[in-house]
Amino acid sequence: FALAPIGNQRIVAGDELTLQLSATGASPVVYRMYPEPELAPLVTLDPATGAFRFSPTAAQAGEQFEITFQ
Fold this sequence. Notes:
Layout lengths: L1 E2 L13 E4 L2 E2 L8 E3 L7 E3 L5 E4 L12 E3 L1
Antiparallel strand pairs: 1-3, 2-6, 4-7, 5-6
């Protein structure tokens, strides 16, 4: 399957980033993510729907993170 482009995202610490991933191709699609280890407790991804949430802490203000989706 092919995941639709997401692009870079920006969020204010303390706020929540929500994304709806979408893909085309084989059905059913199972979404996966590979966050940096320190982000694991702060991110969720529903593998069936592609609903993604990230809530950074104030201590992470100004930092950049990379999350890979498949």
